[in-house]
Amino acid sequence: ARICRLLLEELGDGLVCSDRAQARTALLNALPTAIPRAVGALVAGLLALVTTEADRAQARTALLNALPNALPTVDPQGVGALVAGLSALVTTEADRAEARTALLNALPTCYWSPTFGALVAGLPALVTTEADRAQARTALFNALPTAPPGAGRDLMAGLPALVVTETDRAQARTALLNALPTASPGDVGALVAGLPALEPTEADRAQARTALLNALPTADPLAVGDLVAALPALVTTEADRAEARTALLNALPTADPLA
User: Mean pLDDT in the chain?
Assistant: First the structure.
């Protein structure tokens, strides 16, 4: 990666058209087999070498093709560089839709939470309409049941950018509540912690509270703290508090000491 950066610095801004095309071709050819930590430097070089729509289209295609190969790696920076590069190379709604679809299709194939987070972080730049936001939210929640541990936190970090209107909020609330029964205990805590920002009703809070309390008995010890920490936002009446107290007391006899 360091060598690649040095070469790009040496090339500078004084390239003539043919040199630029030659350098661009070299970077595009290197991308499919590049080691993960070199991807960022290659993408940065590509962005400096595109000047026409044809250049951008060629670079976009290369990044889209490289994305599936990058996902199985444990290098979120490489995935993040590809995602950021795609965002920088879109100029039309068709470009944006193509890049957005690629990111959404990639979500279910993530094996590690940081790469899932890198994809989520790239979505806001690729959504412009309510339909785009709804598509992105649906894909995020659909990917959650098979997503890597910790993906719920990444999802909730990216959700505010996908919730702009009251319609968005209502749809996101419904999707979140529907995702709770099949989410991992760790993700339940993250999802519930993000619920207040979606202005839930009392019925919403009750549904979330039930899912959280049901997750407690089988939760990983490391997730118990998040689940318990999310409870206060879901209890508003004495009956709620009594229900939560009972569930916590029932969980104590079988709780892992580390919890």
Answer: 84
Which of 11-20, 170-179, 195-204, 226-235 is the least confident region? 11-20
Confidence (pLDDT) at 178: 84
Report the C-alpha gap between 208 and 170 in whole angstroms.
15
pTM here?
Answer: 0.76
| SS3 readout for the chain | CHHHHHHHHHHCCCCCHHHHHHHHHHHHHHHHHCCHHHHHHHHHHHHHHCCCHHHHHHHHHHHHHHHHHHCCCCCHHHHHHHHHHHHHHCCCHHHHHHHHHHHHHHHHHCCCHHHHHHHHHHCHHHCCCHHHHHHHHHHHHHHHHHCCCCHHHHHHHHHHHHCCCHHHHHHHHHHHHHHHHHCCHHHHHHHHHHHHHHCCCHHHHHHHHHHHHHHHHHCCHHHHHHHHHHHHHHCCCHHHHHHHHHHHHHHHHHCCCCC
Q: How far is CA 120 from the centre of its chain?
A: 2
Q: What percent of the chain has pLDDT over 90?
A: 24
Token code pair at residue 122 = 């790239």
What is the Cα–Cα distance from 189 to 20, expressed in whole angstroms? 50
Alpha-carbon distance of 19 to 21, in angstroms, equals: 5
